[in-house]
Amino acid sequence: MFREDAGPEPQWVLSWEGLTEKVFAVNAGSSIFFANSDGILLHFNGVFLEKINGLRLKSGAEMDISITKTEVDGSEVFSFRGPTSNFGDLVCQFPNETANDLALEIGSMRVFEITQECFVEDSVIEQRIILNQSRQLIGLQFFVHPGRQPITVRYGQIKGLSMY
To answer: What is the pLDDT averaged over residues 143-163?
Structure first.
């Protein structure tokens, strides 16, 4: 009768290079902050992941990265910076939006994917934002370092997103 409430549970899942963490989503105006009690904090500004704090590599090194976006010669250029380092740039085309049906265990759901093709050497890679039929965010896939795999954040209740 007097047991303590455990409090809210994180509803989002962050995945990056073998790391999987549950995180909370905190809405702040047009931004969403994804965070957990282990010190991970991601700032999604509504268009791209702008800042990453507290991600730990397998070596134990913590990655704090700021990302800026500029337009250059008809492309978007994402620049990745650490506290004392410049990690490089990623050149991307402008985003493109498509509507798709996402297969779920209990049927399907209409989603909108905003995808962006980017170029690393001879490879084409993608960043994406996935919205549900009400245009609410349900998934992200963005590069946070030009030489590493993209980070993904998805709403934990929807397991069939194509990027995971």
So the answer is: 78
